[in-house]
Write a structure and sequence with these properties.
The complex is a heterodimer of chains A (257) and B (157). Chain A is mainly α. Chain A contains nine helices and two strands. Chain B is built from two helices and no strands. Classes of the chains: A mainly alpha (257), B mainly alpha (157).
């Protein structure tokens, strides 16, 4: 496949950029680049916040602590705005999602060829550096959130309460099959829309960066600079949307009708 | 592009990250934030309290100052009154003393006058006697007119 990609010029270049470094066959394929970069970024996030948390004082905070607290405060406000129950998981979950997704997306701002070039110098054929352009990464997160939604729905409303909600709402017991169908679609749409929204935005963004990289060199800065600026907005917004929707879905799971 | 086992790996990573955040990151940072909030709120409350106390103290001080002023003016008034009294009293005594001195002086003068009168009379009578003597010595015998002479000298004396 590698030789094919090289042979086909522009299309080959694009395909090469969007092919993951993977091992294994069929379902048991592992996208090593996605796993590696998301783990590194996760470690970066955890390291930064742990550093801030270790030095956390109620007195005059340092720069690291101020930054961390700013994010904490921001996430906490979002959580308090839409979630009124008591749950120790939601705020840390939201913080993790926001920071991690943001860092994933941020990889998009690296020039498209730099990391693959370094990779190829080290003998790595394919390298996709933005984890959020991998459906596995976005779906892993949204499915985890989906599991939490189901878990809390059952925990708060009870199995029977949750089942009743699925069967008797919104149209009452006489339209049970219709209710059930509607509710199931509604629930399943949550993780799918979460994952696809993030994936779609970042995949498209990355694709445009790759397309720009195919243009003559003197045109590239003119196009990639404004697109990168615009992308700063997009990557933050997508991280924010993922976080807020997670909070909203979980608070819906906590609402007992 | 297809869904594969990466999904599972990502889910594990995600779970680990969330667990770590929940356990080691969120609580200390959030607590320190809350603690600082409380500290600031306490500080503000304390400042307000202090201000109130200051106002109270100011009021009190004003009251005390006013009282002190009143007292001092009272004292001054009293002192003035007393001074006036003293002046009046000393004027009185001075007047009396003066009058007394005048009286004494007058008495002395009177005395002096009497003395002078007396001595003058004596001298005059002596002179008159001597003159009479000289006049009479020619005609009058001393012994013969002893009676008359002593009568006269008595009268003069």
């Amino acid at each position: 496949m590698a030789t094919e990609a090289h042979a086909e010029g522009a299309t080959g270049y694009i395909i090469h950029h969007l092919t993951s470094l993977s091992v294994g066959e069929g379902f048991w394929t592992l996208n090593l680049d996605t796993l590696f970069f998301s783990a590194v970024l996760g470690a970066l996030f955890v390291w930064f916040f742990k550093m801030a948390a270790d030095k956390a004082t109620a007195g005059v905070p340092g720069l690291v602590q101020i930054f961390a607290e700013m994010l904490i405060e921001f996430v906490d406000t979002q959580v308090k705005d839409s979630f009124h129950g008591k749950n120790k998981l939601i705020a840390p979950l939201a913080l993790t999602i926001f920071c991690w997704v943001f860092l994933w997306n941020f990889m998009d701002l690296f020039p498209v060829d730099i990391l693959p070039l370094i990779g190829s110098l080290m003998g790595i054929e394919y390298l996709r550096v933005v984890p959020s352009t991998d459906l596995n990464a976005t779906f892993a997160m949204s499915i985890s959130v989906f599991c939490l939604i189901i878990f809390y729905s059952i925990k708060i409303k009870g199995p029977w309460g949750f089942a009743k909600e699925l069967m008797f709402q919104p149209f009452g017991p006489w339209l049970l099959p219709f209710n059930l169908l509607l509710k199931l679609v509604e629930e399943i749409a949550k993780p799918i829309s979460l994952a696809l929204r993030l994936f779609g935005n970042l995949y498209a963004g990355e694709l445009i960066f790759i397309l720009i990289a195919l243009l003559p060199w003197y045109l590239q800065p003119v196009l990639s600079f404004p697109w990168a600026i615009f992308h700063i907005l997009i990557i933050t917004l997508q991280a924010f949307i993922f976080m807020v929707l997670t909070i909203v879905y979980l608070s819906m799971a906590h609402e007992d009708h | 592009m297809s869904i594969n086992a990466t999904l599972i790996g990502q889910m594990i990573t995600f779970a680990l990250l969330v667990w770590f955040t929940m356990k080691y990151i969120w609580p200390p940072l959030f607590d320190s934030l809350e603690e600082r909030k409380k500290k600031i709120a306490d500080g503000l409350a304390a400042a307000e309290k202090g201000q109130e106390a200051m106002h109270l103290a100011e009021k009190k001080a004003k009251g005390v100052l006013k009282e002190a002023k009143e007292q001092s003016s009272e004292i001054v008034n009293l002192a003035q009154k007393r001074a006036n009294e003293l002046v009046e009293a000393s004027k009185d005594t001075a007047k009396k003393e003066g009058e007394r001195l005048i009286l004494v002086a007058k008495a002395q003068i009177e005395q002096e006058k009497q003395n002078a009168k007396e001595s003058l009379r004596k001298e005059v009578s002596a002179l008159a006697l001597r003159a009479a003597e000289q006049i009479l010595s020619a005609e009058i015998d001393k012994t013969k007119h002893q009676d008359i002479l002593s009568k006269i000298s008595k009268q003069l004396g």
